[in-house]
Amino acid sequence: MKITEVRVILTCPTRNYLFVKIMTDEGVYGVGEGTLNGSELAVATAIEHAGELLIGQDPMRTEDLWQLVYNWSYWRGGPIFMAALGALDLALWDIKGKVANLPVYQLLGGRARDGVLTYGHAGGGSFREVEDSVRSFQERGYKVIRAQMGGYGGTGMVKHTPSPGRNVPGTSYFHAANYLTETPKMFEHLRVALGDTVELLHDVHEQLAPIETGWLARHLEPYRLFYLEDILPPEHWESFRVVRDASKTSLAIGEIFTSRWDCLRLFQEQLIDFIRIKPIHVGGITEARKIMVFAEPAQIRSAFHGAADIGPIGQASSLHLQLTIPNFGVQEWSDFNAANHERLREVVPNPCHWEDGFARPHEAPGLGMDVNENAAKKYPYRRAFMPIVRRADGTMHRY
Ligand code: MG
């Protein structure tokens, strides 16, 4: 079997998604995904370029082709190249599963659990609205629920600044003192209203300084979070010790990690409890599986990133892998079967199954997914950027 073509499919049915198809001379093809929010055009170009290396190759040589694409560039790694490699790797695993006539999870060691535990995003503008939102997720069957107040970043976000005329559309403004004091009060409200057993978590979105994060993690201890997420910019890995020393709240990070090298020091020193990588942004199933092996002796569990900017094929790859690994924790869930994703389902018709808080990949050979290229052409790419966060005086908010 030889690879004959790598097709790049960039489409915007609801938001931008980037898919690939790897075609072979035997009619079997594989599908993958390399969506990277705000950088889809760059990844598409990287896939077109790296895909040329695969023409004429045996698609069953998953590991060797991974090494070829990773090492070919010399300036290897980084989010663009690793998302491109991830898209290609997923498609190669899809081909391998189709040739073996088995779902990919069977090739990774087989089922280690009945389903993949998921969490959903609850939110609102007040403690009571957040409580009602959490209850609605519980009613739908969710066992683990993220609770946020306000917009992107939580209670510290406001939609205006004290200085008239400085408010820029599309920009959020962050107030650390407000966020720090309101967040523990919100969780106190939720525990009083909802009891101790529901699993709750919270995302800091890297908005705080290390000492502020340590303070928050300590003040959240009485409310027993499942974990506190994205506590610091991950490049400041040494600052994780400040938070670790300050509290026993479980910590999760890694959604913008792109390789094993981002993870290793945090693993070796057991500075986190959950790792939020996912196959499509670390070079695919081949590398994500190795990262989870590195995590195992450090007793670190998976909590794969799964916001709606990771599409249904990337989601499927996360489910196949997390069905098999011993150190599984939880999967962030976007329900692509919901009504608001109807146009996306024209392009990727069969999102993975979810019921009573647990997700399952399809039993069809490979990843069990497909891409309708004609439907994708109906929805051309639209330029989009990530949200911008500033402080009240207009400074870009980044430590
Ligand atoms: Mg996050």
Give the helices and strands, then pairings.
Blueprint lengths: L2 E9 L5 E8 L4 E5 L6 H12 L10 H11 L5 H23 L3 H4 L8 E9 L2 H14 L3 E6 L7 E2 L12 E4 L1 H19 L4 E5 L6 H11 L6 E3 L10 H7 L4 E3 L6 H9 L5 E2 L9 H11 L5 E4 L7 H11 L5 E5 L9 H6 L5 E3 L2 E3 L12 H5 L10 E4 L8
Bound molecules: magnesium ion.
How is this structure best described in words?
The structure is a single chain. By secondary structure, the chain is an alpha/beta fold. The protein folds into two domains: 3-102, Enolase-like, N-terminal domain (Enolase-like, domain 1); 107-363, Alpha-Beta Barrel (TIM Barrel). Helices cover 36% and strands 19% of the residues. The chain contains 13 helices and 16 strands. The chain has helices at 40-51, 62-72, 78-100, 104-107, 127-140, 176-194, 210-220, 240-246, 260-268, 285-295, 312-322, 342-347, 373-377; strands spanning 3-11, 17-24, 29-33, 116-124, 144-149, 157-158, 171-174, 199-203, 227-229, 251-253, 274-275, 301-304, 328-332, 353-355, 358-360, 388-391. Strands 4-5-8-9-10-11-12-13 form an eight-stranded parallel barrel. The chain has a three-stranded antiparallel beta sheet with strand order 1-2-3. β11, α10 and β12 (301-304) form a beta-alpha-beta unit. α5 packs across α6 (176-194), α6 (176-194) runs parallel beside α7 (210-220) and α9 (260-268) runs parallel beside α10 (285-295). The mean pLDDT is 94. The chain binds magnesium ion (MG).
Strand content: 15-25%
Give the helix tally: 13
End-to-end Cα distance, whole Å, is: 50 Å
Beta strand count: 16
- Unreliable stretches: none
Helix amount, in percent?
25-40%
Helix-strand makeup class: alpha/beta
Trace the largest sheet across and list its strands: 4-5-8-9-10-11-12-13
CATH topology of the largest domain: TIM Barrel
Overall outline: globular
